[in-house]
Structure formats: structure tokens, C-alpha cells
Amino acid sequence: MASDGIFSSMQTTVTGLSSQLKRLETIAENISNAQSGPDASGRIYHKKRVIDAPLNGAQPGSFQHQMSISLKRANPSHFSSITSIQGKALGSPAPQFRVEEVGGEVIEHDPTNPLADENGYVRKPDINVVEEMSGMISASRAYEANISVLQAAKAIAKLTMEI
To answer: Which residues contact 104 (CB under 8 A, 6 or more apart)?
Structure first.
């Protein structure tokens, strides 16, 4: 009995945990800079987002690669490969993600602010704290779900070892 499935599910879950943790870190950075003004050089903080970047193509040893091999052996009339379910690549060992700046800036009229220019306008990052808090709750719930999956996979692996 191969135990690849159990350990690959753990690897996928750990990747999900790291992705959600990166989302939480990025959201925390956005919230902490929501009211910041320009720095010494006049640059404004830009909102950041974690963007998932799926891997292209099946890698040897991946689920997609294994499925295409087993389908070819099972029946030649089957599809030669499975490429995606709902637009997501199958068998990628770890979803890749990157952090990108996506926000701009807003200009508010506040002549009493010490950061205001000669016309009384203050430049601030275009960050909606309510949206960020909503994203934080979503990332937190996804993180908790990944923990539950990891615990279930660990229990299955433990039961498998008792056989």
C-alpha cells in the first residue's frame, strides 16, 4: 500500500497554510499603513495582495501526470490527460503565490493635517480597512480549515501505520 497520497495531502495542506499565512501578513501590513502619509521621498504606500500563480503543465510525479498515465493504461479511448478542474491545475505540488502592489492613492482635503500640502490636500493609500478586515477573516477561516485537514491526514497516517 503506497502512502504517497497521505503525505502529498499533508504537503498540499502545508502549502495552503503558508499561502494563508502570507495573506494574513499582507493584510496586516495593509491595515497598519492605511492612514500613513508620504515618506521622506514623497512615495505613498500601495496596497498589496497575494496573487496565486498556478504552475503550468504536469510535472513528473504529480497527480496530473499519474492520472494521465493510469488513464492511458486503463483504456486508450479515455482522455490522454487531465488538465484542470474548475480552472485549477491538478497535481501541482504547491500553489505558487506572489505579492503584488495593486492599490493607488486617494487625496483628501484636510488643511489641519501636518502632512497637508500648500493647498491643504493630504495623499493617503487607497486602502479600505473594512475590506481588509473581511479578507483577514476569510484568510483566518481558510487557515483553520487547512489545520483541520492536516489533523485528519495525520490521523489517517497514524491509523495506516497501525495496520
So the answer is: 46, 126
Specify the DSSP element, H or E, that contains 89: strand 88-89
How far is 146 from 59, CA to CA, in rounded Å? 24
Determine the 3-state secondary structure of 126 from DSSP: coil
Residue 33 C-alpha cell reads as: 499603513
The CA distance from 130 to 75, in Å, is 53
Query: Which tens digits make up the pLDDT trace of 57-105?
Result: 545 555 554 554 444 445 554 444 333 333 344 444 445 788 899 878 9
Q: Are 10 and 153 in contact (CB under 8 A)?
A: yes
CA distances to 105, 110, 146 from 37, rounded to whole Å, are 10, 12, 37
Provide the β-strand partners of residue 24. Answer: none
Cα–Cα distances (Å) from 19 to 34, 50, 65, 91, 158, in that order, read 22, 8, 24, 17, 26
| pLDDT given for residue 126 in this prediction | 92
Question: Which ranges of the chain would DSSP assign to H, the alpha helix?
Answer: 4-32, 63-74, 129-162
The amino acid occupying position 44 is I
pTM listed for this prediction: 0.67
DSSP 2: -
